C-alpha cells in the first residue's frame, strides 16, 4: 500500500505541547487528521496551541499538567480519554527540561528538578498512559529522549543521565506492553534551534557555571551556534522541529507496526554507530 499516513478519527495526547517540539508534533498529527489533546504547564501556551489546531479543522483540547505531579497526570489522562470518546490511540510524552550546570557546579535542587520532570514525569505518564492502552489492547506510546542519553554530552552530564533513564524506561516498558498489542518507542532529537537550545547557548556563554552571568551579543550567539553545528553534526546542518515531528508521526503510524522498543535518533549522523 502507498504510504499515506492518515490519523483521521484518532485521538493523540501530547505533553509539553505548548512550544517547541511538542507543539510541532501536535501540528503534524493534526495535519494528518488527528484530534489532539494537550498537556502543558503554562496555560497560555496550551490555549494558544489549541486555537492553532482548531484553525486547522481538527478537534483539540487542553489540561494544565505538570508531568512530575502524579495527580496532574492522572487528571490529564482521564480528560484525554473523555475527549477521545473513551479511547486513546497515541500518547507522546514530550515534556522535559534541561540543566545548564556542569557536574562540578550543579546544585542539588537542580538535580532534583531535572530528574523529577524528565524521569519521574516519564514514569508517571507511562504508568497511567499504559494502563489505558493496555486495557484497550491497542495504541502507541512515544517518549522523547535525546541523543545526549545515547552519547553522554560533556557539560550536560546530569541531563544526559536523565535522558539515558528515559531511553531505558522506554525499552523496558516496550517489553511489558507488547503482549497487550501496545508499542512503546522513543524519539531522540539531535541539535535543533529551539528554546531549549537557546538555553544551551546561555550555558556555553556562562561556562556552565550558575554563578557566572555573562551577556552575549546576537553575533556571539550565532558563533556559538555555528560552532556547535559544525563540530557535532556530520551532515553539516542542524535538524528542524518538523524533522522530529515527522519521525514521531511515522513511529505512531501503522507503517511502523512491527517497531517497538526502538530509540530512533534524528541527528544528521551525530550518534552514528552508537
Structure description:
This protein is an alpha/beta fold. The chain has one domain (11-191, 239-266): Rossmann fold (3-Layer(aba) Sandwich). Helix content is 47%, strand content 13%. It has ten helices and seven strands. A seven-stranded parallel beta sheet has the order 3-2-1-4-5-6-7, with helices on both faces. Strand 2 (35-40), helix 2 (43-55) and strand 3 form a beta-alpha-beta unit. The longest helix has 21 residues, at 157-177. It starts with 10 loop residues before the first strand and ends in an 8-residue tail after the last strand.
According to CATH, what is the topology? Rossmann fold
The secondary-structure element order is EHEHEHEHHEHHEHHHE
Query: Structural class of the helices, strands and pairings?
Result: alpha/beta
CA-CA gap between termini: 33 Å
- The average pLDDT score comes to 92
Number of helices: 10
Supply the CATH class: Alpha Beta
Q: Major sheet: size, sense and barrel closure? A: 7 strands, parallel
The general outline is: globular
Q: In order across it, which strands form the biggest sheet?
A: 3-2-1-4-5-6-7
Radius of gyration over C-alpha positions, nearest whole angstrom: 18 Å
The level of helicity is 40-55%
Please mark out the parts with pLDDT under 50 across 5 or more consecutive residues, or reply none.
Answer: none
Amino acid at each position: 500500500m502507498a504510504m499515506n499516513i492518515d490519523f483521521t478519527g484518532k485521538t493523540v495526547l501530547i505533553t509539553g505541547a505548548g512550544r517547541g517540539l511538542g507543539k510541532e508534533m501536535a501540528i503534524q498529527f493534526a495535519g494528518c487528521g488527528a484530534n489532539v489533546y494537550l498537556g502543558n504547564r503554562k496555560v497560555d501556551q496550551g490555549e494558544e496551541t489549541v486555537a492553532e489546531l482548531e484553525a486547522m479543522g481538527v478537534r483539540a483540547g487542553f489540561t494544565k499538567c505538570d508531568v512530575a505531579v502524579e495527580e496532574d497526570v492522572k487528571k490529564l489522562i482521564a480528560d484525554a480519554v473523555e475527549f477521545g470518546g473513551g479511547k486513546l490511540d497515541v500518547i507522546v510524552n514530550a515534556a522535559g527540561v534541561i540543566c545548564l550546570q556542569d557536574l562540578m557546579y550543579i546544585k542539588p535542587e537542580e538535580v532534583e528538578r531535572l530528574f523529577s520532570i524528565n524521569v519521574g514525569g516519564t514514569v508517571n505518564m507511562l504508568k497511567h498512559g499504559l494502563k489505558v492502552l493496555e486495557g484497550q489492547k491497542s495504541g502507541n506510546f512515544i517518549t522523547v529522549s535525546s541523543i545526549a542519553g545515547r552519547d553522554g554530552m560533556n557539560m550536560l552530564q546530569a541531563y544526559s543521565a536523565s535522558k539515558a533513564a528515559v531511553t531505558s524506561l522506554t525499552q523496558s516498558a516496550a517489553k511489558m506492553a507488547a503482549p497487550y498489542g501496545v508499542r512503546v518507542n522513543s524519539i531522540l532529537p539531535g541539535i535543533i534551534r529551539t528554546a531549549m537550545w537557546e538555553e544551551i547557548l546561555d550555558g556555553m556563554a556562562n561556562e556552565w557555571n550558575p554563578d557566572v552571568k555573562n551577556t552575549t551579543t546576537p553575533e556571539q550567539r550565532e558563533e556559538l551556534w555555528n560552532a556547535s553545528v559544525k563540530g557535532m553534526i556530520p551532515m553539516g546542518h542542524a535538524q528542524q522541529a518538523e524533522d522530529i515531528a515527522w519521525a514521531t508521526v511515522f513511529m505512531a503510524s501503522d507503517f511502523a507496526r512491527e517497531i517497538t522498543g526502538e530509540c530512533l535518533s534524528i541527528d544528521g549522523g551525530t550518534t552514528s554507530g552508537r
